[in-house]
Helix-turn-helix domain-containing protein (Pseudomonas plecoglossicida), 197 residues
Amino acid sequence: MPTETEPRLRLEQYLGLQIKRQRQAQSLKLADVARIAGISQGMLSKIENAQVSTSLDTLSRLCDVLGMPMAKLFSQYDQPDGNALLVKAGEGLEVVRRGTEKGHTYHLLNHARGPKKNFEAYMVTMDDASEEFPTFAHPGTEFLHLLEGELVYRHGNQLYHMQAGDSLTFDGETPHGPEKLVQVPIRLLSIMNYGDE
């Protein structure tokens, strides 16, 4: 299953991290920054490690010592969270598509949230030298990248001999599919772009 994003940092963690990064970027010692800011070294360490909540006055003094505007300290805290989807190796959702029963395995590497689907990405594995292959036709553009193995791929009336490292891009509405498996196992990355449909 897809891995969820890490939980958002608490404000204390975020502020401590920003202060520590700024101090280390300038190669400043904890003791020196604490002394000039008028706080103990222990307190600065606790602030950097999010073990205490500190006052705005203390934060303001630390920003002055580090030559950093206070606004910069907070500037990225309330940015919208990223909306990336991480699928760890081998954890793509196995799905059934034409050809599944003939020794082909399809792992969906992405899923769209909401009703609109712009693209789909599959890791296709073929480990059986069966000569029966499904033919596909769908809207949009398809991109194939052969990671492992060797095959002949049909698009319309054309045949394309593909070896590991080769890519093929084509109109998905023209009937297409594997024609011959030359060397198995085959691992094929398939990305279908549906555009704005």
In short: The helical segments are 11-25, 30-37, 41-48, 56-66, 70-74.
